[in-house]
Amino acid sequence: MPATPSFEPFDRPLDGPGARRSADAATGGVAPGRAAGAAGTGTGTPGGDSDAVDAAPTGRLEAFSDGVFAIIITLLVLDLRVPRAAALGAGGLGAALRALWPNYLAFLVSFCITGVVWANHHAMFRRIRRADHTLIVLNTLLLLCVAVLPFTAAVLAEYLTGTAAERRLAGQLYGGALVVGGVVFNLLWWYAARAGLCGSAADAAALRHVGRHWLAGPVLYAAAFALAWASVPASLALYAALILWFGISGPWLARRLARPGGAPRTR
User: Fold this and answer.
1) How far apart are CA 176 and CA 229, in angstroms?
2) What is the pLDDT of residues 77-104, one digit of tens each?
3) In the chain, where the domains are located
4) In this structure, what are the phi and psi dihedrals at residue 128, rounded to the nearest 5 degrees?
5) Regarding predicted confidence, which is higher, 226 or 46?
6) What residues does 57 pair with on adjacent strands?
7) Shortest CA distance to 142 belongs to which of 202, 217, 81, 242?
């Protein structure tokens, strides 16, 4: 009769070659310290930013941001008020609708700017795979700058037909919020690339490459802000040109870098 095999207790510590093989299987053959560093930075290189060790996936941050962008775009349309029948003048409904042209203009420009920021934010987070506390704070500040657009757009629409001083102040209020938002947007991608929050070294290099394109945003928004001193319509025309430029070139460049061989060389 064969001998009954004996089993070791489950709580007995393992040692010897079997223990080493088990440890290697648990860490993927990487030393525990390096495995933790790779999980934190996403690049597999130790010595990353200390916040990156506690970084989490960006799913919740992206979902929250998308929700805020959707609410902002919805709030913009609330300034398009229906003319009341009791308040119609001699021109009737047609004249009342034509008188709302400043509201249409402010809504259209603000809607497109919000959409462009969202599209480039989406392109940015195709490269960013983790979020630490600092990144969350910067992203929240960006949402703050975008969330004020319904207010600045309403002020612009209200005083676009006012006195020269009122038009100038309304235009500068509108442009000032965009300048600050552009600065925070660039701080967001710059920090992510520096803190090791991208999916790989190639992702970080690609983010820095497209980020150099985004650096022009605050400068051009500042130019539109300054132009409002002389002409608010000219300032709005520059915003329209920026919408076309960043709306087409930013996501296009990000898609180009996402193709095989499209990313810049890394050193």
Assistant:
1) 12
2) 988 888 887 778 777 888 888 989 999 9
3) 57-258
4) -90, 125
5) 226
6) 130
7) 217
